[in-house]
Amino acid sequence: MSRSQRLYDWFDSRLDVEQAQGFLGKAFPAEDSFLLGEVALFCFLFLVLSGVFLGFFYEPSISDVEYEGSVAEFQGEEMPEAFVSVLHITYTVPFGMFIRRLHHWAAHLFVASIGLHMLRVFFTGAYRNPREPNWVVGTALAVLAMGAAYTGYALPFDEFAATATSIGYNLTVSVPLVGDFFGEIVFGGQFPTSATIPRLYFLHVLIIPAAIAVGLAVHMAILIRQKHTEAPRDDDVEVGGRTVDRDDDSVIVGLPAVPNQTAVSAVVFFLTAATLSMLAGFLPVHNVAEYGPNDPASTPNLIMPDWFLMWVYGFLKLLPKWFSFSVGSIHVSTEFIGGIVLPGLVFAAVLAWPFIDRTEAIHFTADPLSRPRQTAVGVAAVAFIMIASIAGMNNILAAQVLGTTTDVVNPILTAALLGVPPLFAAITYFLLRDGASEGSDEGATPAAGGGGGADD
Ligand code: HEM
After folding, report:
1. What's the rounded mean pLDDT across residues 45-72?
2. Which of 43, 214, 258, 299 is least crowded, fewest Cβ atoms below 10 Å from its Cβ?
3. In the chain, what percentage of residues exceed pLDDT 90?
């Protein structure tokens, strides 16, 4: 008996590997866009690993300490400990700057890949019956990912990031009746108190990652239970000596999980690692030494959230200040409407979508070109978020691009936000209408091809 066979038998007698073989042979459809979810998954892994490294050196406190590090301009100065520890990570700890940058880029790639994954699921109709629950779990994961990035933004406690984070505090306390309570829980009271950074740190390193990990476990469990969607097949497919009918939706045709799909996933893993390493090696991130420690007495000229929250900032910029009212003793402010109500409605619409676009249970994905209505809605939604994001940068657009003031560009941006999405939706609909047979969601998408496995 060979050594490998003996090793196999050793494990088999203890772990019943034989029984797991059915699971290891499960088929995974061979579609490149299905790998976006894996990129998000691997980014989360890199975030946790790099975050653990940073956690060894970061100090979640804003008590003043004397700086004695290698940045000459701060020598001997009393500064918040959180800020000092980030300078220490960046300039003194071996590989500190690299890991800090890697953590930063992994966070951005995480959110970006989630966004693209969500668009893939939307445009191919993979959210439809019976996958609505996974769409809902996914939406929660997207919110948590943004929450993780937001709570991490303020941790260096430099002037720029701390001021941008204070916008979140203002939005939180703007919620009628319960705002102050949540401001106390999340920020430890009036931003920034000595409790603010410890609270944000606690959320950033424990509560939100744990919630993401639980959400991911549920997301993957539902995926395995329901089986992955698959592109419609052109023809019957020969797999492992049996013929699978082109319309047989009880069987998945794809690569066996082990070893083929595992090899593909390994490539995605190493490509993600390589991309993040390249970014961390060559692209600097948020330069804390340049901004200096947070100074509650001053406000930086430019305040900006991260790009993925820019659309929310856009709502805040476009809503006129008079757009607020009172009901009895309850004041409904512009901050509350622009920063909480409107984004809340956007997420409510996202959550509700699979229950609006209702179908019979369906296994195959759809061709976006054969779904004029749904694709038109998707195009309008993307246009809406992009215009709102441009509005979030209205001051840069006005001063640096158009050489004018925000008073001039704001009405144009408001008109664009309300007018362009419906216009794009109408154009998309009319362009696709003739080529698609409405109601037949499965258009002429070419089949994913055979692959090596079939999974009942
Ligand atoms: C932390 C964030 C997320 C991670 C790591 C993640 C990961 C994954 C992975 C690995 C898959 C299987 C491969 C694939 O289809 O790409 C998947 C499938 C799926 N995801 Fe996500 N996902 C996340 C967020 C989301 C979001 C924001 C949505 C939508 C709102 C979503 C909805 C779905 C659905 C419906 C499926 C099943 C698709 C199918 O069967 O074709 N996910 N996810």
Report:
1. 96
2. 299
3. 78
